Each structure stands twice: as structure tokens, then as C-alpha cells.
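hi! just following up on the protien thing from before. the input was this:
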Amino acid sequence: MCHIKQIKMKYVIILAEEVSNVDFSQVLETSENTLRYSNDNGQALLKFEGATPSFLEGKQLYDYTGIMEILNSPQWTQED
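and the predicted 3d structure came back as:
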């Protein structure tokens, strides 16, 4: 069941300075405080389902497999 939800979900990475443009009613995160940021805090991850919100139009969209490759990179993972 969880896998089906992942297929429908779309992911976008935005610059941290673009967070103020996010309409949180159109994405799955609820506020700036619930975003996942890259290790350098320069980028943030957004998730949504359905139509692409207007403020994300023109941005690179990722599916689950594509975003996991990025999130598992050193730029996004914390070393123990």
C-alpha cells in the first residue's frame, strides 16, 4: 500500500531562498519547519500529489526512485 502512494507522489528540490514562495496548502509538508533541507541548508525538498502547484511549474520533478538517489547522496545524508 505504501508503495502505491510513493508512485503517485512527486518530489521537487527548491533553493532555500524560495521557501517563502511555498503555498503549504498545495504540498504535503505543513510549514517551513517540516521541510527536509540539504546538509548545507541551501536546498529543500517538497512533496505533492496530483497537479503541479503553480509555484513549482518549470522545476525539475522527480519520482520516488529519482529522489531517493539524490537523498542518499552525501549532500543530503548525515554521517554518523
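The first strand starts at residue 9 and ends at 15.
The first helix runs from residue 2 to 8.
cheers
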